[in-house]
Amino acid sequence: MKQVSALYRLLGDEARLRLLTQGVEVFTENPITGIGAGQFQNYNDPGVTIERWRVTHNVWLQVAAELGIGGLAIFAFLVISGYRSCFATLRWLRGSRRKTPSTTLDAEAQHIIALNAKSMLAALVGWTVCSLFAAVAFNWTFYYVLGLAVCGREIARQHRAAAEPVPDHAASHRFVRVHA
Predict the structure, then answer these.
(1) Residue 165: exposed, middle, or buried by beta-carbon count in 10 A (0-12, 13-18, 19+)?
(2) How many CB atoms lie within 10 A of CB 69?
(3) Which of 47, 91, 117, 138 has the highest local Cβ count within 10 Å?
(4) Mean pLDDT within 140-165
């Protein structure tokens, strides 16, 4: 921590280090419930230096301090779901380019949905990098990207399900016994 402190002092950003440290302290004092969404800026503990910008400068620390462990777990689930949606869409579309089509989408629609998945994946990577340096957990940017990633996956899933052959259940009725 001393090396990080020296680096911040060198860069003239001791206030950011103080706020990060305060974010960790708030989380360790309130690990279960946090202090409430958007309340870090109002946090006023005795001995706390009031900074001009009262943010944690880290999304993960912001969510942990304000929402606790449960909120952090749910937020991490949302971020992971965004990534999984993009990869699932790309995997399904890659499978549809093989000999047997596994989707009812034409080539142009597949291209558009693949572009959406790749774009949302790039946006998620960019947001993840920025999340380490900005407190934007409750801003609209992540939730729009998440919604667009999930929509692309759902469109691909719907068309994939429509292309799958319906199994013949007529043969299986012979093995059902009815007891009165």
Answers:
(1) exposed
(2) 15
(3) 117
(4) 85
Residues 103 and 98: their CA atoms lie apart, in Å, by 11
Place of tokens 């360790």: 28
The terminus-to-terminus CA distance of the chain in angstroms comes to 74
Q: pLDDT, tens digit, for every residue of 85-129?
A: 999 999 888 875 555 555 677 888 888 999 999 999 999 999 999
Which residue's entry shows tokens 């989707």?
A: 103
Count of residues in the chain = 180
Q: Which residue has the higher pLDDT, 51 or 24?
A: 24
Is 86 in contact with 121 (CB distance < 8 Å)? Answer: yes
Q: Could you identify the residue written with the tokens 């060198």?
A: 10
Provide the CA 110 distance to its chain's centre, in angstroms.
Answer: 24
